[in-house]
Amino acid sequence: MAFSPDGKRIASGSEDKTICLWDAETGLQLGSPLTGHTGPVYSVAFSPDGKRIASGSYDKTICLWDTETGLQLGSPLTGHTDVVYSVAFSPDGKRIASGSEDKTICLWDAETGLQLGSPLTGHTGPVYSVAFSPDGKRIASGSYDKTICLWDAETGLQLGSPLTGHIDLVQSVVFSHDGQRVVSGSPDNTIHVWGCPTDSVVNLYSDNMPRQPSYSLCYSSNPSHALLDSDVYIPECDINVRTLLELDSGGWIVNPKGHLLLWVPSYMARPSLYSPYRLFVIGKHINLDLSRMVHGSRWIECNFKGNTAK
Questions:
Q1: Predicted local distance difference test score (pLDDT) of residue 179
Q2: CA-to-CA distance for 122 and 105, rounded, in angstroms?
């Protein structure tokens, strides 16, 4: 699933071999499903201008679509020898990267559909996720081989050694907006944050937090959000973002010095807070007003019926 750059539309790929477009405000389907693939569609991505969609499929191909007409643009892009799990547009919209069961990453000219150079090889397992850096100069890839690789998007050369730390396959990778970090998610129940191109690892899950796989990740476009730089949520702490935040037995999320950050009511089933089978993305055009949220020393009001802040 992917939001359009303006946040007004959603594209979804399905086992039924189609791509559907949806109005993000109303939830209504826009037009008929886009048909052309002969196998399940595992990945979709909007071009930066929102005029095209790329899709990767079990049928080993990438297809390009016109988002206004729903028509397929040219012939499917062929070159992979197995399932295509991930597709991504470069920031300038001129290239597409694709990751495949065949253990390679391919680069394509988004206008002509021609493959650019030879496949990028280095992974020893299927490639489940690919992402361009914000400047378009690097590509990150996550693989069944439990590693993340960084690549020069121009030369196709691997940058440094694979990043190791996950103990299971890497399902998702994403660059931070400044291009200085890569975040990876895995069914090993952890999220790792890596300095680029160094191999510093950050595990944002501690042993006493709900243990659930991380199948999909995205960075917030708001620089004040925690994932972009969680240091701002750890006041008066000399430990940087490479620090565990914990959910204690009383339901409090605490920082490394024991400061209370957020309380999760005990009557809420902890596993229900996040399902590994659910992906929730908020478009850029949506704003949340938390000005009347009960917080700080007033959190106890949450426990008293009829006494919640208005």
A1: 87
A2: 9
